[in-house]
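Run D-3-phosphoglycerate dehydrogenase through structure prediction, thanks.
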Amino acid sequence: MTTKPRVLQIGPLAGSPSAQERLQASYTPLELWKQEDKAAFIAREAQDVRVVVTTASFGCPADVINALPKLEAICSWGVGYDSIDVEAAHARKVLVSNTPDVLTDCVADLAWGLMLGVSRRIAQGDRYVREGSWGQVHGAFPLGVRVSGKKLGIVGLGRIGEAIARRGTGFDMDVRYHSRRQRNDTDYGYEASLESLAAWADYLVIATVGGPSTRHLINAPVLDALGPQGIIVNIARGSVIDEAAMVEALSSGKLGGAGLDVFEHEPKVPDALKKMDSVVLLPHVGSATLETREAMAGMLFDNLASFFADGKVITPV
Ligand code: NAP
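Sure, done. The structure for D-3-phosphoglycerate dehydrogenase is below.
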């Protein structure tokens, strides 16, 4: 009987229905999140471990990486790796893999859901019908704003940003983007300054990476430039927007609306936002469809199998 390779698992694979069972079927996961004294557990049980299994939410900090002398690979479920100390991993020649591409379409779809949801007051209308206000209150349900034909500004024209942009063409939108570098393989207009993109756009959709390099990239001056008719949508990471500045801009009417799948201190959401009809709030579900979550699990297991077969991962970071 062959023994199943032992892997250190940072957090549960709760987002894909079958992923935890599949992990247990082929590997022996050491379940770090269940341990009270994590450092003692690693020192006692994980000194021979070659692979860490984690997710974009649980990540892997430098102290865990450096407490594993035999570590060779960190395989993560999710595309964002801002919660993994990639620098510490690479300093020790530890491979890091993620699950890109397979979630791109569903995250882009959700960004569009948020744009439409805020503009056409879809969640607000649903609340209005459910609470029995239709036909009961004076005046009509408030008007929304037109989406088709408007100006769409994308911050970060990567895999997801580009998929959001492509959908914009179907809505007859004019699309421009900002990232650190202009791409020479696309015809979308480039704005070298984030503020000038915000000043031009009706919708500013955030699709950059998270982490320290983009923290509070969207600050009060950018929100001011987007203006009272402007709508911001964030499917990237909560840290990219200065959340306090955004709440202030929405409260004072300096910003028109917001569609948010991600927040600065998840799962905490500012109470002020929960009282506003100009925002739509979601619990970080960009990739949360059955098909995509299964595909992400498949890619995680392909990376694990590849590493244990020949020491390589398929989708390195
Ligand atoms: P990607 O292909 O690597 O694209 C990231 C883009 O961000 C690139 O175009 C990059 O362009 C740009 N960028 C990086 N730093 C920037 C900066 N300082 N200013 C402006 N642009 C910057 O990644 P992806 O697959 O599209 O995923 C994007 C992010 O979406 C992930 O990192 C993750 O955080 C988030 N995400 C969220 C969910 C969800 O459930 N809501 C699900 C999946 C992913 P340059 O390098 O040229 O600047």
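The chain has two domains: 6-101+291-310, 104-281.
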